[in-house]
Amino acid sequence: MNSPHLDRVERPRIRSVDLLRGLIIIIMALDHVRDYWSIASFDPLDASQTTFAYGFTRWITHYCAPVFILLAGTSAFLYAHARQASKAHLARFLVTRGLWLMFIEITVVSFSWQFAYQAVFLQVIWVIGLSMIVLAGLIFLPRRVVGLIGLALIFLHNLFDGIAPGDGFSGALWSILHVPSFSPVGESSAIPGIFLVYPLIPWAGVMALGYAAAPILLKPAAERDRILYLTGAAAIALFLVLRGFNLYGDPGAWAVQDSFAMSVVSFVNVLKYPPSLQFLLMTLGPALLLIPLLEKWSGAWADRVSVFGKVPFFFYVIHIPFVHATAWLWQIIQYGDIMEMFFDPSTWPEEYAPNLLRAYIAWASTIFILYWPCKWFAGLKKRRKDWWLSYL
């Protein structure tokens, strides 16, 4: 449990962090709405099958997980800095919060995706929790060493792409570390299997880097902006070189297509599971460039976006069952029944067809409706300093 004295300390918020996190949360919801309201039988980033609109809709949501995990590491440092907390206190908080997030992923979130337990999905909330536990150990090292470890995990992990998990404990461990996998539990189990979507590496490195780089945000504005602009531009430039010449950092090569638009789709179709170096450069670089601009953003719309950034976990937990349940309602109205196997094209009604306009309307409606409970909860967290609110 956190120290009551530390938890009563008013924590000044960095506006750009709330705004960036809010934007990411809003964009993330688009991907999940698309899954339930306009799922397609093809990979939206497969240039041989997709359209530019589908490709863009999927590509823009790639920014969500890397930025959110980077900011989770940044927030861990700012949490301790604002409270003048010891590393032991921060480590306890990271471990307990990490375990809590992993528990919520296994129980509430996995159920919300399916409204059943056909499988347990270990996705972004799981890997954030596991990365927090790793970070709890790393913070006892010098901060520069934490940053170097983060960079090493990000830049070097693709060297091990060719290693497939074997059998037994070592194979299971390698799957947790680096290879997405499905592990059947057994015919006698009520849960057929565990689908590990987000391996630990390099996500733990992204969080470690966010922690190590967090003091940049506390520097004077001119110095902070200069560092962020230079770093973000360098990441984008390195991505363009590595991707443009199909060099190191992603297992799949891009190729010129029949049209410029499809060539762009092929160019940005980099591996997310696990995220390749090119994937992380492509997503984190622009995010760093955006932070100085968000510091200058003000007005009613900025205030609304920041609401989501103040309660990201709360939004995440409530938006999945909301999107799922409203999609069920639409399916009943449209097709007279619930499409239980909506992700299996062989079970789709003959009249079903993906429709991005439908997905975008559902997405905008979801954001509008869920803004109000998020605003209420953000107000609750501001008014009260109970220790348990730090876990939501």
The largest pleated sheet is described as:
3 strands, mixed
Q: Return the string of H and E elements.
A: HHHHHEHHHEEHHHHHHH
- The geometry reads as globular
Radius of gyration over C-alpha positions, nearest whole angstrom: 21 Å
Largest sheet: spatial strand order: 1-3-2
What is the count of DSSP helices, taking H or I runs of 4+ residues? 15
User: Helix fraction?
Assistant: 55-70%
- How far apart lie the N and C ends? 15 Å
Q: Structural class of the helix and strand makeup? A: mainly alpha
Low-pLDDT segments, ≥5 res = 1-10
Query: How many separate domains?
Result: 1
Q: What's the mean pLDDT score?
A: 91
Note the beta-strand portion: under 5%
> How many DSSP E strands?
3
Structure notes:
The protein has helices at 4-7, 15-37, 52-60, 64-83, 87-114, 124-138, 143-156, 168-178, 203-213, 221-244, 260-268, 277-295, 300-310, 312-335, 356-383, and strands at 120-122, 181-184, 193-196. With 392 residues, it is an all-alpha fold. The protein has one domain. It has a three-stranded mixed β-sheet. A hairpin with an 8-residue loop joins strand 2 (181-184) and strand 3. The chain crosses the membrane at residues 59-82, 94-113, 119-141, 148-176, 196-218, 227-245, 276-294, 314-336, 356-374. Residues 13-225 form the Heparan-alpha-glucosaminide N-acetyltransferase catalytic domain. InterPro entries: HGSNAT_cat. This is DUF1624 domain-containing protein.
